Amino acid sequence: MRILVVEDEQDLNLLIRKVLTKAGYTVDGCWDGEEAQLHMLGAEYDAVILDVMMPKKDGYTVIQEMREQGSDVPVLFLTARDSIADRVKGLDLGADDYLIKPFDFDELLARIRAMTRKHVGQRKNQFVVGDLMLDVEQHRVTRGGVELTLLPKEFSILEHLMRNKNKVVSREQLENRIWNYEYSGSSNNVDGYMSRLRKKVDGEHSQKLIYTIKGLGWTIREAKEEGETT
After folding, report:
1. What residues contact residue 88 under an 8 Å CB cut-off, 6+ apart?
2. Nearest 10 degrees: CA dihedral of 55, 57, 61, 65?
3. Rg, the chain, Cα only
4. In what order do the strands lie in the sheet containing 126-129?
5. How buried is residue 69: exposed, middle or buried, by Cβ count under 10 Å (0-12/13-18/19+)?
6. CA distance 39 to 29
7. Taking each helix axis from N to C terminus, what angle separates 171-178 and 187-201, rounded to the nearest 10 degrees?
8. For residue 15, is pLDDT > 70?
9. What is the pLDDT of residue 136?
10. With CB atoms counted within 10 Å of each terminal CB, which end of the chain scores lower, N or C?
11. What's the confidence (pLDDT) of residue 178?
12. Average pLDDT in the 121-137 region?
């Protein structure tokens, strides 16, 4: 999952990004509302952590314009403004959650998990396809009860596929969701990760779960359909 952190306190911005990266997220960061909008024009995000009081454009303006433009990306307001009126305003403008500074990072991570699973209609932090299970909170993957050892990017790719079960995910979508702006590799790198992931997930199993849709991308499902290759 790819998250945008918009916070003008640079030390806090960097610390949040470090914590989220350690938790397995792909993270971009910026310092003001206008820069945040530029980031959102150039990439697809699964969630936005948004400060309220910022230079150029405040958080209220940013989320109002996001919702007016049709964006339904989950937004968590992160701010020192703790009045009921401020919280009501943020939620009425379209925020999914509100966390007051100072805060505990475990709570921040839990709130991110909660609002992103709500966004995709999940009640749990687990995704299941056949006998394959991915637990977001524990950062754990098993197939047939056997734990799989995945690299962080492999885990992120598999999570994105499982969140979009039965849908085709393109190479470009994976690049946009799994790699941040610091990524300087090529699309061949995505293919390499996919190849290694498929060996770990499907391996010698007779029932394959990850399929190639020629010219379009990949999908994960419990049964092969016409036009798909393993």
Report:
1. none
2. -150
3. 19
4. 126-129, 132-135, 140-143, 146-148
5. exposed
6. 9
7. 90
8. yes
9. 87
10. C
11. 83
12. 85
Query: Residues 26, 42: contact at Cβ < 8 Å?
Result: no
Whether the CB-CB separation of 160 and 171 falls below 8 Å is answered with no
Looking at residue 13, its amino acid is N
- For 5, the enclosing helix (H) or strand (E) is strand 2-6
Q: Determine contact, residues 36/62, Cβ cutoff 8 Å.
A: yes
Contact between 135 and 119 under an 8 Å Cβ cutoff? The reply is no
In angstroms, what CA-CA distances link 151 with 24, 127, 148, 194?
10, 18, 10, 11
More confident residue, 107 or 121: 107
- The size of the chain, in residues, is 230
- At 185, is the pLDDT very low, low, confident or very high (cuts 50, 70, 90)? low
Q: What is the DSSP letter of 169?
A: B
pLDDT at 57: 94
Tokens of 141: 């993957």
pLDDT tens digit sequence for 19-51: 999 998 999 999 999 999 999 998 889 999 999
Residue 58, helix vs strand vs coil: coil
Count of CB atoms situated within 10 Å of the CB of 202:
17
What letter represents residue 24's amino acid? G
Closest CA to 16 of 88, 76, 87: 76
User: Dihedral (C-alpha) 50, 52, 53, 57: value to the nearest 10 degrees?
Assistant: 70
Nearest-angstrom CA–CA distance, 15 and 153: 21
CA atoms of 116 and 124, how far apart (whole Å): 10
In the block, which residue shows the tokens 């020192």?
80
